[in-house]
Specification:
Layout lengths: L1 H7 L4 H21 L2 H8 L4 H17 L1 H11 L1 H28 L3 E3 L5 E4 L8 H25 L6 H21 L1 H8 L3 H23 L12 H12 L2 H17 L1 H4 L1 H9 L5 H5 L1 H16 L5 H21 L14 H30 L6 H5 L4 H21 L9 H7 L5 H31 L1
Antiparallel strand pairs: 1-2
Helix pairs in contact: 2-7, 2-8, 2-10, 3-4, 4-7, 4-20, 5-6, 5-7, 6-7, 6-10, 9-10, 12-20, 12-22, 14-18, 16-18, 17-18, 17-22
């Protein structure tokens, strides 16, 4: 009997390789994504609106395409899919580093005497970065579907929960390590560190490529899964479910605020708290809070409905936004625990943000699946991240406009006094997102009451 249990809990080599490369891929992705808008603005010269739009589309595609990429992966096999994915990711991240250097060599970009990159002299050329970013999107789309699929196929019903727990830990370790590397690079190299960072990410994905090539072997075969036509039909079916689409739109409000960790926070903190601030490290507070509190919150809310737990989290988000806003109201000369008030209150806001996520994320999939027709839960869950697709588009887009209006780029002004006057109401940005979060929370309560009455009437 003990021998049988031992066999059940033994993890395959493919399982550990998949988890290892997931850690490397997440470190590569989050290292770049936390400063993607800074890279687009400070390195390539895009304004806030342009940078936010490009970053938003980039993020949105990474949430929409994995389901379709998964169809290809099922046909050609996971190993081939990962080799393609990590090859594209390595080329993409390396391209982000090489592209500015090529522009400088061609005389289309320049550095100042302080080695800070000043952007392009010919603006249209910078849009050539889009096909480079597309390589990362395509590669990342395969990774999102294949790694989780590998974990599912390399585990049994008895150890699957533990297997995904290990996977989740790898995701967070990768996220934490990727963001951590940003600060020392920026301190050592200034804005040029935003270029060098991409070589770090390319190295991570190249190591993953080598690991897959030499170490990954699986008994799973190609030729399984759904066709593109079946997936598209499923997508249309989800979109025709009014109750489900309404839920997605409401939850999009939460994720619009959550995405400001990448869309607004880095530029906001550096512009108001100074170049010595560490937005990449502040962002790490979010996964830290989630890891430390998710089990406690889940246990605390176990007897409550999924909708109740989600509603609690939704009402925490406006508090998060107000904390972030309050930093700009405090006296900028009065440090708190050695931090600029804007930076300190940003961290406080991120703590609440992470706490809200623990109430919402674990229960959303549960509630989402309950809204699907019986027997079609798996099909519907394939599109459960449509809210992140929408929130990336609208959250990043709105961020660009708000930064441009309330917290513009300081170098656009002739003097510090002029910029200070223009950015005096920078905290208004968070009022907008706080309002979005509050409206979404109220909408979720109304949604719950209406669906409850409809269900009761249909009994």
């Amino acid at each position: 009997m003990s021998e049988e249990v031992k066999v059940k809990t033994k993890w395959s080599k493919a399982f550990w390789v998949a988890n290892g490369v997931e850690l490397l891929e997440r470190a590569a992705y989050y290292g770049v994504f936390i400063v993607i808008t800074l890279y687009l603005s400070r390195i390539l010269g895009f304004n806030d609106i342009q940078a936010a739009t490009i970053a938003g589309v980039f993020s949105a595609c990474l949430y929409l395409l994995p389901t379709f990429a998964g169809a290809i992966a099922d046909k050609i096999g996971f190993r081939s899919s990962m080799l393609i994915a990590f090859s594209l990711l390595t080329l993409g991240y390396a391209g982000l580093g090489i592209f500015p250097t090529m522009l400088e060599s061609a005389g289309l970009a320049e550095y100042t005497m302080t080695t800070k990159f000043t952007g392009l002299l010919e603006s249209n050329v910078r849009y050539a970065i889009i096909p480079i970013m597309a390589l990362i999107v395509i590669g990342g789309s395969f990774i999102k579907s294949v790694i989780s699929g590998t974990i599912a196929k390399e585990t049994t019903p008895e150890n699957r929960a533990k297997g995904f727990s290990i996977f989740y830990s790898m995701v967070n370790i990768g996220s934490f390590s990727g963001k951590t590397i940003v600060k020392p690079l920026r301190e050592a190299m200034g804005n040029e560190g935003l270029i060098t960072l991409n070589y770090f990410s390319a190295t991570m994905t190249f190591l993953a490529l080598i690991a897959i090539f030499f170490l990954y072997k699986s008994a799973q075969h190609a030729g399984e899964g759904k066709s593109f036509r079946q997936i598209w039909q499923a997508f249309l079916k989800v979109c025709s479910n009014g109750r489900l689409i309404l839920l997605i739109i409401i939850i999009t409000g939460f994720w619009m605020v959550q995405h400001q960790l990448y869309a607004t926070m880095p530029k906001y903190v550096l512009r108001l708290a100074g170049e010595g601030a560490s937005p990449s490290w502040y962002a790490n507070v979010n996964p830290l809070v989630v890891v430390l509190t998710v089990n406690l919150v889940t246990q605390m809310m176990r007897k409550r409905t999924a909708l109740t737990s989600m509603t609690v989290g939704m009402f925490i988000m406006p508090v998060s936004a107000l904390c972030m806003a309050y930093g700009n109201v405090l006296d900028s000369g009065q440090n708190i625990l050695g931090m600029h008030p804007v930076a300190f209150m940003m961290v406080v806001g991120i703590v609440f943000q992470g706490l809200a996520e623990t109430f919402i994320s674990p229960r959303f999939l549960e509630y989402f699946s309950l809204q699907a027709p019986k027997g079609e839960e798996g099909l519907y869950l394939g599109f459960s991240h449509l809210h992140s697709f929408l929130s990336s588009l609208f959250g990043f887009g709105l961020s660009g406009f708000l930064l441009d209006k309330y917290c513009p780029e300081p170098t656009l002004f002739a003097s510090t006094a002029e910029w200070a006057a223009a950015a005096s109401n920078a905290h208004y940005i968070w009022y907008y997102f706080g309002a979005i979060a509050l409206i979404s929370a109220i909408a979720l309560i109304v949604y719950g009451q209406v669906t409850k009455r409809l269900d009761k009437a249909n009994q």
